[in-house]
Fold glyceraldehyde-3-phosphate dehydrogenase (phosphorylating).
Amino acid sequence: MVKVGVNRFGYCGHLVTRVSFTSGRLDIVAINDPFINLNYMAYVFQYDSTHYKFKGTVKAKNGKLVINGKAITIFQEQYPTNSTGVFTTMEKAGAHLKGGAKRVIISAPSADAPVFVMGVNSEKYDNSLKIVSNVPVLAILWHDGHGAAQNTIHASTAAAKATGKVMLELNGGPTDMAFYLPTPNTSVVDLTNCLEKSAKYDDINKVVKQASEDPLKDILGYTEDQVVSCGFNSNTHSFIFDAGAGIALNNQFVKIISWYGNEYGYSNYIVDFMVYMASKE
């Protein structure tokens, strides 16, 4: 089993750890976070308002975080640049390699690290790469000074730019925009397409459903149910295609709707990619 160290035990860090324990696919051996103490680590890991209480045991004991009986070594090293998300370039992330890590996955947008997404371009990864980014870039600029629980807020996002990094044939093509909604979790993509080749919407659904069964099983979900956002809390898929929500103006102008969990779903595909990287050793 792959041995993994987690640097920063914020929301992404503790959900990746939770997924690792519930799936049994990774061995979390160390956690570093200079900003929170051990008792608080145990608390935030055990209780989650969105994804609910961890179905297992967790406690702080003898300076270690003990999850389901496994003791994890805790470090609280404050690196020279001690703010969240600073190790996002190849140079800065390389400090982890010097510290003994074999490979580094940056779970944040990176200016120069190659970006990989499971099921999209993961087959292009090779084990000569020591540092990679594994993130759907959702860096958002939004209108500050307004209550998030009271408003739908227009925002800009770098998702289209990130798509061009992962799928080079689309670089410079898609454009995007976003809205913040007063919901605790789950995002939705409304993708409007002008197709080069005509296709009936029912045929598109059939192709996506087939892909969700194989070869994108466990990565792409598919539903024909009348769903709402909270139905996807703690969903492990990277995307869930909503067949009933899409529409087609004609056979060349199609709107596709997909849901995704930018917390639990994302944490799962980080784990997926770590397991995939290990398979290439």
